[in-house]
Automatic annotation (TrEMBL):
Domain of life: Archaea
Key words of the record: Membrane, Transmembrane, Transmembrane helix
Membrane-spanning intervals of the chain: 12-30, 37-54, 94-113, 125-146
Cross-referenced Pfam families: DUF63
Identification of the protein by name: DUF63 family protein
PANTHER family on file: DUF63 DOMAIN-CONTAINING PROTEIN, HYPOTHETICAL MEMBRANE PROTEIN, CONSERVED, DUF63 FAMILY
Amino acid sequence: MSASLTSNVGWAALTVCASLVLTGGTWLVLQRHVPAVAATAGCAGLFAVFGQTLDAVSTFVGVDVLSFVEQVPLSRSILDATAALPTAPLLGSAWLFVGLKVGLAVALVALLADPRRPLGATDRLALLAAGAFGLVPGLSNLWLYATA
């Protein structure tokens, strides 16, 4: 196994671990501050947060560590705007992207998981779709790391 391949697989593994830690921490904060929302959202809400977090963290590693170029125009514009901030030399150009993706996932969970009623099938499907729409590009990024 070449050094580059080993290094990129290592970055992929680190990305998954960081995503799990960030998701877990985010979910614990949600459980602590709005436990009824976390309980109502359940696994579907947790999956939504994880999928979006994996995409965000894998983009962070890909762009700021492995020097990949973001292909999605909206994401690229966020990364470009963040790169222009004075924090870029210290934090990189994707930290804001991570915060936005995780924050939007939590906002979606809070919006759909109304504790005054059970989580409906449509709301559950929306959370699962949000998770999948993050998970698929996140896994694609990991595959790109391993095969670059």
